[in-house]
Amino acid sequence: MADAAVTARHTTRQMLLENFGKYKFATNDSKLYNVEKAISWIQQIERELKEVFIPGGSPNNDGALQLCTAGTSLAKIKSTDMATAKIVLDHYKRKADDESKREGKTIEPEIASRADAHEEAERLNTRYQTIIGIKEAIGHAATDTFGTNITDSVLRTADGTDFKSINDWTVEQLFEAIRQGADRPTTNEVHHQLNVTINYTFNFQQKIQTNYDALLATAGKLKAVGIIIPASIRGHILLHQLEQAQREEWGRDFRSCMQNLRKSYPYTHVHDDASICAILHEVAGADAVRNLSEAPTSLPERAHAVNSLVSSILRSAAEYETDDDTVTEQASVVPPASVSSAETRRSRRRTTTKSRNTRSSSKGGRNNRSRSKGGRRDRGDSDELKCKHCKKANREPTHFGIPEDECFFNPKHKGWKPEWVCEKMDIEYVAKSKFKKDE
Q1: Measured between alpha carbons, how far is 368 from 360 in angstroms, rounded to an integer?
Q2: What's the pLDDT score for residue 270?
Q3: Among 249, 356, 357, 424, which residue carries the largest CB count within 10 Å?
Q4: What are the φ/ψ torsions at residue 163 (nearest 5 degrees)?
Q5: How many CB atoms lie within 10 A of CB 144?
Q6: Residue 298, CB half-sphere, CA atoms under 13 Å: how many?
Q7: How far apart are CA 342 and CA 394, in angstroms?
Q8: Three-state SS annotation for the chain
Q9: Dmax over Cα atoms in the chain, in whole Å?
Q10: Cα dist. 51→58, 92, 188, 252 in Å?
């Protein structure tokens, strides 16, 4: 076996481990990851595999991507596979004989000399070892990223005491274990993701094709939770966004092509990938000439904005309005929810005001006693009613009907004093419970 075939496995594994190491993500407090992150990691690995060079090429010119699908020619390669010159000669001879029988004429083998067969055998051996190195790199990267508790079910034996042979597991099985080991979302979270996809809005400062690709990516995330957004819904979302855009001044370039699309696709049409491609092709011309900077990042929601503004204005009016007729007239133009909330706040405010008035009128204070004797009196109406202690403390109005010797500001008064009086007189406050009733 040539040196290239011997070193291909180790070299490929080390190179890909370095590349795969870039794709890390944080887990939650329980060391779990969600399905979206798992799918994203798998897609990044598949993107790397597309760019890997495989000696002899790949069937679909997609690098080593077929290694991720069980049953393909790359996934069937074993670490024990080896090619020799004799095996190559026999293979091409049988292939030529089969073609000769089918065509009815003699066809020479593509490789007939031993030198050419030896060279082909070295190429095949390098190919086999490269595929095994890629497979090992994926296994190591998955273990480093997700942990042994996820990958051991695939990479280790049933009792967990030893590793399986590289030939006893597939990349597809490993990827499925990663998906199944993810923290499953709740039904509400799945429903929210579905609503985000259905209500997806385009950023018209970008091309329509770019927006549709972003829609595909958003819809693709739902595959991990068992929901597939078909082309019929994606086509409706695309046309809905274009219909909204052509109504705006910055979207006037879409108007002519939207007329053509209405003729070609009535509202009963069930869209598929072919019709979506035709729609994107139709709007590509208008998309190329329009000024992207004139468009907003998302479509304006006029009805929602107007309703929010009206509700806000009427809520503010309801907070200051006290006339029932006026409030009723204003509330009749808002939705029922807004009317209900405004009336509820108004009723609460009235209840609070009434309760305050009731408490203030029921309190038996000194001021009430003074009003009951002589009615309301203005400040400074009579000098003999003013207390000298209150004057010294700069307090007005004074306590009408209360003797001066019982004034809180009287230094000789030995009874209880409120805390605010003690602070004003700069004395220590004593709780009322510590005084005798006769004091």
Answers
A1: 10
A2: 94
A3: 424
A4: -80, 145
A5: 14
A6: 6
A7: 45
A8: CCHHHHHHHHHHHHHHHHHHCCCCCCCCCCCCCEHHHHHHHHHHHHHHHHCCCCCCCCCCCCCCHHHHCCCCCCCCCCCCCCCCHHHHHHHHHHHHHHHHHHHCCCCCCCCCCHHHHHHHHHHHHHHHHHHHHHHHHHHHHHHHHHCHHHHHHHHECCCCCCECCCCCCCHHHHHHHHHHCCECCCHHHHHHHHHHHHCCCCCCCCCHHHHHHHHHHHHHHHHHHCCCCCHHHHHHHHHHHHHHHHCCHHHHHHHHHHHHHHHHCCCCCCCCHHHHHHHHHHHHHHHHHCCHHHCCCCCCCHHHHHHHHHHHHHHHHHHHCCCHHHHHHHHCCCCHHHHHHHHHHHHHHHHHHHHHHHHHHHCCCHHHHHHHHHCCCCCCCCHHHCCHHHHHCCCCCCCCCCCHHHCCCCCCCCCCCCHHHHHHHCCCCCCHHHCCCCC
A9: 141
A10: 11, 30, 38, 42
Nearest-CA neighbor of 276 among 212, 203, 194?
Answer: 212
- Residue 382: what residue type? S
Reading the block at residue 164, the tokens are 């399986």
- List the one residue out of 315, 87, 298, 330 whose CA is nearest residue 201: 298
Which range has the top average pLDDT, 29-33, 327-331, 357-361, 381-385?
A: 29-33
Q: What is the pLDDT of residues 243-289, one digit of tens each?
A: 999 999 998 999 999 999 999 999 899 999 999 999 999 999 998 98
Tokens 């309005």 belong to: 321
